[in-house]
Design goal:
Structural class: mainly alpha
Order of helices and strands: HHHH
Helix content: over 70%
Oligomer: single chain
Number of strands: 0
Shape: elongated
Number of helices: 4
Largest sheet: none
């Protein structure tokens, strides 16, 4: 028990932080958070940049478009019942919105 009282007596009473110290601690925390978010954002964008063909121009863009075209052409066709359902839905939408499209085209286009 005497050891505890000696350490308590030897310890200096802690002083409260000054305003400048509080400011510097907050500044360091905000700076660290901003730096972390910037690094995380950069790493995320750089990892996703390969998949974003619209960021590339010229040859790289057309190469990616060609690959996607071949992939789409090689996929198996939809089953007939699903095709019929999709075509029916498209016809229903066309009938529903035909008057609006005709109004946009105007009388000279008919």
């Amino acid at each position: 028990m005497s050891d505890q009282t000696e350490t308590e007596e030897d310890a200096e009473p802690s002083r409260p932080l000054t305003e400048i110290q509080i400011f510097l601690i907050k500044l360091a925390a905000v700076t660290g958070a901003v730096f972390f978010l910037m690094v995380a954002g950069y790493l995320f964008i750089s990892s996703q940049a390969e998949d974003l063909a619209f960021l590339k121009g010229g040859h790289a863009f057309w190469e990616k478009a060609e690959e996607k075209l071949y992939k789409l052409a090689d996929e198996p066709d939809l089953p007939e019942p699903k095709k019929a359902k999709i075509i029916g839905a498209l016809r229903k939408l066309a009938e529903k919105y035909r008057p609006y499209i005709d109004a946009l085209e105007g009388p000279e286009r008919k």
